[in-house]
Amino acid sequence: MVEDCAHCTGGWIAGGPAGRFGTLAVTSLYATKLVTCGEGGLIACSDVALAARLRDLRSCDHREGPGIRFNYKMSDLAASVGLVQLDRLNLFLDRRRAIAARYRQALMGGTRVRPLFPPGDAREVVFRFCLVEAEGLVEEMRRCFREKGILVERPIYHPLWQELPGSSPLPGSAWLHEHLFSVPLYPALEEQELERVQEILSEVAR
Fold this sequence. Notes:
Layout: E1 2-4, E2 12-13, E3 16-17, E4 24-28, E5 41-45, H1 48-58, H2 76-87, H3 89-107, E6 113-115, E7 129-133, H4 138-147, H5 171-179, E8 180-183, H6 191-204
Parallel strand pairs: 1-4
Antiparallel strand pairs: 2-3, 4-5, 6-7, 7-8
Helix pairs in contact: 3-6
């Protein structure tokens, strides 16, 4: 089993850290993720032989024997950035939880918009703050934010199943795509910016 931890790096589930359930656990280091080097990713592996195979595939230089290999080495500069980010991961996660709490507070009393997920426990990982509206007015709400200089996006550009030939429609996925949007949430969000998002959230929720 491959466990995708791209949106829950540093998170806990069922009494232990995320990433321990699969033979492989993968996470992304893209610029918008919880820990970033700009690009790339990490693989954690509990199988010694499989880990050796992954290391062999990672580099095409000075390898014995035939086989396809790649040049997936991380640069020293990117690794240095990543190590600093890892040291600050808990601070990043705390800041994200604090911002999410402020957003939930701004939505209190509103009926048009609600958070996709209820508040989690003290170890909750908030990668995105997704909102659900039931009236089909996502584009109108995005416009309200855009007019105030705030970029608000749908969490997913389009459902993956729509790209697969012969796939059956997934009504739940299609509905969420039409009714979900996410607001800015990242550790470097400044207080003035956060207050502006809160203000507009209060407006569109009512």
